[in-house]
Structure formats: C-alpha cells, structure tokens
Amino acid sequence: MPPTTIAIDGPAASGKSTIAAVLAKQLGYLYFDTGVMYRAATWAALDRGLAISDEAAVTRLTETLQIDVKPPSKDDGRQYDVLCDGRDVTWAIRSPEVDANVSPVSVYPGVRSALTAQQRRIGLQGHVVMVGRDIGTVVLPEAQLKIYLDASAEERAQRRYREVQARGDPTQTYDDILANVKRRDAIDSGRATAPLKAASDAIILDSTGLSIAAVVAQVEELIAQRSA
Ligand code: DC
C-alpha cells in the first residue's frame, strides 16, 4: 500500500507545489497547498485596509474567513480555484503585495492556529498530498511520507521569474524576486511558531539543477520503497 498521507515542505519556490500536484494526480489523491490559506488571509487583510502589523485585527479577521479550494472553474493556467468568502481570489493571492506581506502574517500564532486546525482536519481524511512549511512537523506529524524539498535561493528566484514572465507581468525583476525569496526564507525559518524546518523523519531532496521529472522520479522511488 502506498503511503496515504504525504507531506511536502520546503522554502518558497522550491518546486513543492508542482511536484505535489503531479504526485496527487498519479495517486488519485487530493492535492492541498496550505500556502494558499496564508495568502488568502493576507489578501483579505490588505483588501480590508488593515495594517499588517496589527496582529489582533489580522488574527480576528482570519478566524472569521471562509477559505475554500475547489476544482478549477477556468482554463487560465490555474490548478484550482481559491475562494475567500465566496470571491475568486486565485490570482489576486499571487500579487507582489501579497508576496511581500504573507510571511509577516504567517508569523502570528493566532493566524497559524486558525489555519492549522482546518488543514489538519482535511489532512486526517487521508489520500492527500499536503504542501507547506510545517506539514511534517506540526500539521500532520503522523504523515506516512515526509519530504523536505530544497533548492538554492538563486534557482528558486529564477523559477519564479520565469513564471511571472510567462504570465506577462513586467513589474517584477529577477533581483526583486531574489530579494523577496531571501527575505521570506529568513522570516519563515526564524519565526517562533512552526518555523520552516525539515521534520526529523523527513527525506531531504535538493532540486537544484534537477528537472521536475527528475524530482518526481525520486519521489516515486521513495513511494515504491514505502509501498513494498
Ligand atoms: O508556499 P507559498 O509561497 O504559497 O507560501 C506563502 C507563505 O505562507 C510563506 O511565505 C509562509 C506561509 N506558509 C506557512 O507559514 N505555513 C504553511 N504551511 C504554508 C505557507
């Protein structure tokens, strides 16, 4: 039997989402990217004009939000729809403004506990590939396969830059993206609550210089070993 709960953690743009989506499709599992929940909460705080530094207000808002992830309703390159209180925010949560504010929001313990509870409920149903920063350590410590996917900051920024260019967004340069990736790494790894780190029983894979297919092949190998 292949593992029924798979946790994939790692820093921004390490390829987690792409790899997880491919695996989930192959296995017939739910693919759940927990980053969209932190992004939706950040988008909602900005949309309502809250100061991101106002921890109490951002936390209260997050506790009331209805964040849903559903199958894609449009053929515009999206992997899924993200709805925040019924509004389609799938692309809005990928804006540079959300990118710049999401790590500070995800530091707040109250925001994390509200979102972690929802993620854990979904994860415990099984047949899921769940992606984030703290899935193997906090959200689903009982996951049957834990992968920590890493890559150099420069390679991760290069990948994000290519994505942004493919979307025809001329506003972000490679240097902006690299600076943002490094800043987010520092905040995500340095926070007190559920910092980005590999679980002690995670398999660490470095995807620097590897194609998506090569990383998927390594993970398939791990799944095959665990299934035997
Ligand atoms: O994976 P991403 O870039 O979409 O994640 C956005 C931010 O959300 C990231 O900077 C940190 C936060 N995050 C988190 O703290 N814990 C998670 N499980 C997922 C994301």
Can you walk me through this structure?
The chain has 228 residues and is α/β, with parallel strands linked by helices. It has 2 domains: 121 residues, Rossmann fold; 90 residues, P-loop containing nucleotide triphosphate hydrolases (Rossmann fold, 3-Layer(aba) Sandwich). 50% of the residues lie in helices and 15% in strands. It contains 9 helices and 8 strands. The strands form 2 sheets. The protein has a 5-stranded parallel beta sheet with strand order 2-6-1-7-8, with helices on both faces. A 3-stranded antiparallel beta sheet has the order 3-4-5, with helices on one face. Helix 2 packs across helix 3, helix 4 runs parallel beside helix 8 and helix 7 packs across helix 8. It is globular and about 55 Å long.
What's the topology here?
Layout: E1 5-9, H1 16-27, E2 30-33, H2 35-47, H3 55-64, E3 67-70, E4 81-84, E5 87-88, H4 96-107, H5 109-124, E6 128-132, H6 135-139, E7 145-150, H7 153-166, H8 174-190, E8 203-206, H9 212-227
Parallel strand pairs: 1-6, 1-7, 2-6, 7-8
Antiparallel strand pairs: 3-4, 4-5
Helix pairs in contact: 1-9, 2-3, 2-4, 3-5, 4-8, 7-8
Task: State the gist of this model.
The protein is 50% helix and 15% strand. It is α/β, with parallel strands linked by helices and 228 residues long. 2'-deoxycytidine-5'-monophosphate binds next to helix 2, helix 4 and helix 8.
Q: What structural category arises from helix and sheet content?
A: alpha/beta
The outline comes out as globular
Question: SSE string, helix = H, strand = E?
Answer: EHEHHEEEHHEHEHHEH
Q: Specify the biggest β-sheet.
A: 5 strands, parallel
Number of domains: 2
Task: Look at the structure and give the mean pLDDT.
Answer: 94
Uncertain runs are none
Enumerate how many helices there are, as a single number. Answer: 9
Helical percent range? Answer: 40-55%
